[in-house]
Design brief:
about 220 residues, alpha+beta, elongated
Amino acid sequence: MTSTDFSTPCSKNAQIDRFVFLAGWLLALFLLIGLRPAWADAADIEVSQMRVERTEEGLYLSALVRFDLPQLVNDAAVKGIPLYFVAEAELLRERWYWYDRHMTSATRYMRLAYQPLTRRWRLQVAPTPITNSGLGVSLAQSFDELEDALAAVQRISRWKIAEASDVEGDAKHTVNLRFRLDVSQLPRPFQLGLAGRTDWNLATSRNQRLGPETPK
């Protein structure tokens, strides 16, 4: 009995096309990453301002995160690689006899991408991870310049991080804020060349204590 070969010139061409596409991806990756030393342009980042406001509606956080994109990250963004930023806020109730008690937390996801057709930058902000599927609810803004888009990423204004019921009036609390560039959401081929590179390690944190509520 003879075996039948189901391969066709069309399928072989498709395999060649996929190989060429992957090779192109890797070549672009090495050109973008491989030519620069791993320690180049380590990110300088800090939360320069942070304010927590307690109201009858809940707890609101405002902050300013200062950083400049390292040249390598900037080049990737200009070439159309989306950048994903994540801000995480955690509310803790202080306890002298044990570890602080976790009360609640909130997360803010941001996706910044260059749109070649319009030559504009698009920033999406959502309470859940942002995917290319279009599912979920997000607010979107467009900017002509990268500098203006980054300013919107860095500025957090009256972000509601907890309900009023999460804050005990007679207790001391701590609010922890963490901000980072999430490289785990980058295209998979691009992630392969980022191991050990400090210029993509864009992360910072800051905390603020919240005393007992003052009786009126």
